[in-house]
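Sorry, explain these C-alpha coordinates?

___
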Amino acid sequence: MHPGNMNEFLVNLDRRPAATDAVIRATEKQLNAELPREYKGFLRSSNGGDGFVGKKYVILWSVDELPSMNQSYEVQKYVPGLLVFGSSGGGEAYGFDTRFPDWPIVQVPFVGMEWAVAEPMGSSFSEFLEQLYKTK
Protein backbone atom coordinates (compact mmCIF):
# COMPACT_ATOMS: atom_id res chain seq x y z
CA MET A 1 0.00 0.00 0.00
CA HIS A 2 1.29 3.44 -0.91
CA PRO A 3 1.66 5.82 2.10
CA GLY A 4 -0.92 8.11 0.50
CA ASN A 5 -3.53 5.35 0.87
CA MET A 6 -2.97 5.31 4.64
CA ASN A 7 -4.82 8.61 4.90
CA GLU A 8 -8.22 6.89 4.85
CA PHE A 9 -7.30 5.22 8.16
CA LEU A 10 -5.95 8.46 9.65
CA VAL A 11 -8.89 10.85 9.12
CA ASN A 12 -9.64 11.02 12.87
CA LEU A 13 -6.01 11.22 13.97
CA ASP A 14 -4.80 14.54 15.35
CA ARG A 15 -1.63 14.64 13.28
CA ARG A 16 1.54 16.52 14.16
CA PRO A 17 3.62 18.54 11.68
CA ALA A 18 5.83 16.45 9.39
CA ALA A 19 9.22 15.14 10.48
CA THR A 20 12.17 16.36 8.45
CA ASP A 21 14.52 13.90 6.77
CA ALA A 22 17.28 15.25 9.04
CA VAL A 23 15.30 14.34 12.19
CA ILE A 24 14.46 10.90 10.78
CA ARG A 25 18.13 10.26 9.87
CA ALA A 26 19.33 11.47 13.29
CA THR A 27 16.90 9.10 15.02
CA GLU A 28 17.93 6.18 12.80
CA LYS A 29 21.55 6.89 13.69
CA GLN A 30 20.65 6.96 17.40
CA LEU A 31 18.73 3.68 17.05
CA ASN A 32 21.44 2.21 14.83
CA ALA A 33 18.69 0.97 12.50
CA GLU A 34 16.88 2.04 9.35
CA LEU A 35 13.16 2.53 9.88
CA PRO A 36 10.78 0.90 7.36
CA ARG A 37 10.23 2.99 4.22
CA GLU A 38 6.44 3.06 4.59
CA TYR A 39 6.66 4.22 8.21
CA LYS A 40 9.08 6.98 7.18
CA GLY A 41 6.50 8.01 4.56
CA PHE A 42 3.98 8.44 7.38
CA LEU A 43 6.50 10.44 9.45
CA ARG A 44 7.15 12.75 6.50
CA SER A 45 3.44 13.62 6.47
CA SER A 46 2.84 13.47 10.24
CA ASN A 47 5.47 13.09 12.95
CA GLY A 48 3.17 11.04 15.15
CA GLY A 49 -0.23 11.96 16.50
CA ASP A 50 -3.14 10.69 18.53
CA GLY A 51 -6.80 9.95 18.01
CA PHE A 52 -8.95 7.21 16.56
CA VAL A 53 -8.16 4.75 13.80
CA GLY A 54 -11.60 3.32 13.28
CA LYS A 55 -12.91 2.68 16.80
CA LYS A 56 -9.43 2.15 18.31
CA TYR A 57 -7.66 5.00 20.11
CA VAL A 58 -3.97 5.22 19.29
CA ILE A 59 -1.00 7.37 20.25
CA LEU A 60 1.80 7.36 17.67
CA TRP A 61 5.01 8.79 19.08
CA SER A 62 7.08 11.31 17.14
CA VAL A 63 10.19 9.81 15.57
CA ASP A 64 12.51 11.79 17.84
CA GLU A 65 10.74 10.31 20.90
CA LEU A 66 11.46 6.70 19.88
CA PRO A 67 14.90 6.33 21.54
CA SER A 68 13.92 7.93 24.87
CA MET A 69 10.48 6.26 25.11
CA ASN A 70 11.91 2.81 24.36
CA GLN A 71 14.60 3.44 26.98
CA SER A 72 12.05 4.66 29.56
CA TYR A 73 9.96 1.51 29.16
CA GLU A 74 13.11 -0.67 29.21
CA VAL A 75 11.86 -2.38 26.06
CA GLN A 76 15.19 -4.07 25.21
CA LYS A 77 15.39 -5.55 28.71
CA TYR A 78 11.99 -7.28 28.42
CA VAL A 79 11.48 -7.70 24.67
CA PRO A 80 14.88 -7.64 22.92
CA GLY A 81 14.45 -6.65 19.28
CA LEU A 82 11.19 -4.73 19.73
CA LEU A 83 11.05 -1.06 18.76
CA VAL A 84 7.90 0.47 20.25
CA PHE A 85 6.47 3.41 18.26
CA GLY A 86 3.16 4.00 20.02
CA SER A 87 0.38 2.74 22.24
CA SER A 88 -3.33 2.27 22.70
CA GLY A 89 -3.27 5.09 25.24
CA GLY A 90 -3.85 2.34 27.78
CA GLY A 91 -2.07 -0.92 28.44
CA GLU A 92 -0.95 -1.91 24.95
CA ALA A 93 2.30 -0.99 23.19
CA TYR A 94 2.68 -1.16 19.39
CA GLY A 95 6.09 -1.86 17.93
CA PHE A 96 8.25 -3.23 15.16
CA ASP A 97 9.70 -6.72 15.57
CA THR A 98 13.21 -5.96 14.33
CA ARG A 99 14.22 -9.62 14.61
CA PHE A 100 12.76 -10.14 11.12
CA PRO A 101 13.93 -8.36 7.95
CA ASP A 102 10.53 -6.81 7.13
CA TRP A 103 9.91 -5.56 10.70
CA PRO A 104 6.34 -6.84 11.23
CA ILE A 105 4.26 -5.00 13.81
CA VAL A 106 3.13 -6.52 17.09
CA GLN A 107 1.12 -5.50 20.12
CA VAL A 108 2.39 -6.27 23.61
CA PRO A 109 1.12 -5.23 27.04
CA PHE A 110 3.22 -2.59 28.82
CA VAL A 111 2.87 -4.60 32.03
CA GLY A 112 4.22 -8.11 31.57
CA MET A 113 5.95 -7.12 28.33
CA GLU A 114 7.50 -10.23 26.74
CA TRP A 115 7.63 -11.95 23.35
CA ALA A 116 5.41 -14.80 24.56
CA VAL A 117 2.38 -12.48 24.68
CA ALA A 118 3.10 -10.47 21.50
CA GLU A 119 0.20 -10.43 19.04
CA PRO A 120 0.75 -9.83 15.32
CA MET A 121 -0.73 -6.54 14.06
CA GLY A 122 0.39 -6.58 10.42
CA SER A 123 3.42 -7.05 8.22
CA SER A 124 3.64 -3.31 7.43
CA PHE A 125 2.63 0.05 8.89
CA SER A 126 -0.38 0.32 6.56
CA GLU A 127 -1.49 -3.22 7.49
CA PHE A 128 -1.21 -2.23 11.15
CA LEU A 129 -3.43 0.83 10.55
CA GLU A 130 -5.88 -1.27 8.54
CA GLN A 131 -6.05 -3.88 11.33
CA LEU A 132 -6.77 -1.16 13.92
CA TYR A 133 -9.34 0.39 11.58
CA LYS A 134 -11.19 -2.92 11.14
CA THR A 135 -11.17 -3.81 14.87
CA LYS A 136 -14.65 -3.57 16.38
Q: What stands out?
A: The mean pLDDT is 93. The longest helix spans residues 21-31.
